Amino acid sequence: MTHKSKIATRRSFRAVLAIVIAIGVIVTVFTSTAFADSTTRYDVKIADGAKESVITTTETEPIEILKAAGITVDSGDKLNLTEFVSGEGGKITISRQNTISVDYDDEIQTYSVYSTTVGEALEEIGATVGEKDKVNYSADESIKDGMVIQIKTAFTVSVKADGKKHRFALAEGTVKDVLTMAKIKLGKNDYTEPSLNTELEAGMKIKVYRVTYKKATKTAKIDFETKRVNDNTLYKGTETVATEGKEGEKTITYSIRYVNGKEESRQKVSSEVTTEPVTKIIKVGTKKKPNGADATPNGVKEKNGYKVGQVIQGRYTHYCACATCNGNGRGITASGRRISNGMQNPYYIACNWLPMGTVISVDGTNYTVVDRGGSGLSRVGRIDIFTPEGHSACYRLGTGSCTIKIVRLGW
Fold it and tell me: What pTM was estimated for this model as a whole?
């Protein structure tokens, strides 16, 4: 039993020793391998435009390092190796070549650039951008191949409003944008020239028109109408005013449009009659005039230098049978014919230049010469017409011019 135990013990010791030796060999190999890797692999930072990455590699050539990182470099691209040390690390910078177009106030040019942002690209090509100029991309926007950068140069426009003038520099916009910048507000009826939606142009002059409305009243006369009314109590050719005409009055209200304080136009909005006009009424005689005195011919064609049918322009007055007009109150004419006020009209006249019994037509009415008068009736054409209506009628009928035609000479 004891012998077997010793043999077993020796076998166990050998097995343990073998395991220890094996572990030692493995540790030695692992340690040796790890030490070898730490001396050949290193980190390289790669800046590809705006993108940055880090690769751990054993490669020493930059192109091979980029291939290992899956990065392709085109023929126009540039590598910056100033910060790279082969076998040790550092940084490889790739500047990509991009083709961009620059639209400068509608003039387009194409450039190849290596910048990574719009701001850098514009600096690279020497493009100057003013503070008020308009660029369609921000300065830190990343450059992309085929990008079109638009630059609009600022220009000056002016706006005049409320007696003040403002100037602004801007690259684009509308008239409305300028008013916003100037803090000018338009009222309901205000307007601008050019209109609000007009695109701005260099040197444009904008005017603001303030529009207000006010009401005003005016008093005006109203002409009266004239109405002619037939009256069968008056002889034809006779007119008399029955009612005098009188002007009326009206109040007119206007809406007045003022532009920048000056009246531009006015429009009548209402009219109210305050005093009605009075119509003038004229009575027009329709009564047929009687022929007057009997004009039976006597065969005499010419007498005392006068001829039948002769026309003379004359002047008439009126007299009645009163003592004042007739010289006596007996009512006896120079021919012996009697007259009296109130009698039926006999159609008599007095004159000194025609033979007694002569019949004349005075404006179409026949009268017989039966009386004489004062020296004034001796003048050719001068007659005095008897009226049986009395002394007041003489004043009413008055005097006037007339046309006399000799119808008969003598009795």
Answer: 0.47
